[in-house]
Amino acid sequence: MQYMRKKRLIFCVLSALLLVGLYSYYYIRWSYLWAKEQERPAYTIAQHDDDTLRVVMIGDSWAVLHHEHHFDDYFESLLQRMVDTPVRMMSKGRGGEVSRGVYRLMFESEGFGTKPVLCAGADYCIISAGINDAQFNLGVTQYIHHMCLIFDFLLGNHICPVVMELPDVDVWRILKDKSAKMLFVRFLQSTMSGSGLYDYAEYREALRQLINEKAYRNKILYVPMKGWHGDTFKIDDTVFWEDHAHLNNRGYERLDSCIAVAIASNWKK
């Protein structure tokens, strides 16, 4: 009996060591996912000297679809009526991109790079980032780090950042066809990055705290969901596609109207 207990104890210890070893191995292997990008040497964006108000939108699929669904033109006409001055709007991004990638693309000219859009001149830059950070459980620490890099670059070029509050994207609907192995991997990664599993609330709170810090207070336009979506963070079927992750045309109309009001008010000041 004593021999059997000792044998079970040795087995448990060895199993625990194996699990710790495997966890450590995958932590090292996956650590690049939540690694922090180093600040890149900034380039200068020439300031325009005409009366045209220039707005750009960069980021993930929300920026891509804004362009593809011709809402750049819609936003131009909408904001132009509010400010009574010519408006130019351009959107560019890459679907599925996270905040680190959004920052990287600001320094690239080819492919999905947004440097040409920025260098065309901008007074305001709408940033769509964070939805995929939460979906991939990368953690608020790296998210806020990269948002700071984006803010600092824009403010250094006298461009006002415009950020949107994140909705509670229905990740489970997106992952419904994924294997149990993939779901388990996502869970493990969330423990490694120190983030809640698909916890959009912690990203919202971290962003709110960031823009209320002294360095960014009164320098960034914050667009809350309440202004265009209502009092709930839960996805509204009337303004999102069936995937509960992307805006439909009605959603873009409401979001653009809210952003336009914020920019017009700030511009007139």
Architecture overview:
- This protein starts with a helix and ends with a helix.
- The mean pLDDT is 87.
- The longest helix is centred in the first third of the chain and has 29 residues, at 2-30.
- It has 269 residues and is an alpha/beta fold.
- It has a five-stranded parallel β-sheet with strand order 2-1-3-4-5, sandwiched between helices.
- It is built from eleven helices and five strands; from the N terminus they run H-E-H-H-E-H-H-E-H-H-E-H-H-H-E-H.
- Helix content is 50%, strand content 10%.
Describe what is shown at a glance:
The protein has 269 residues and is of the alpha/beta class. The chain has eleven helices and five strands, in the order H-E-H-H-E-H-H-E-H-H-E-H-H-H-E-H. The termini are far apart.
Can you tag this structure with a few keywords?
single chain, 269 residues, alpha/beta, 11 helices, 10% strand, globular
Shape: globular
Q: What is the ordering of alpha helices and beta strands?
A: HEHHEHHEHHEHHHEH
- Structural class, from helix and strand content? alpha/beta
Mean pLDDT: 87
Largest sheet: 5 strands, parallel
Please count the helical segments.
11
Residue stretches low in confidence (pLDDT < 50, at least 5 long) are none
Using DSSP, what is the number of strands?
5
Q: Kindly, what is the distance between the CA atoms of the first and last residues, rounded to a whole number of angstroms?
A: 83 Å
- Rg, rounded, reads 22 Å
Topology:
Layout: H1 2-30, E1 53-59, H2 61-68, H3 71-83, E2 87-93, H4 99-105, H5 115-119, E3 124-128, H6 131-135, H7 140-156, E4 160-164, H8 171-174, H9 180-193, H10 200-211, E5 221-223, H11 249-268
Parallel strand pairs: 1-2, 1-3, 3-4, 4-5
Helix pairs in contact: 3-11, 4-7, 7-10
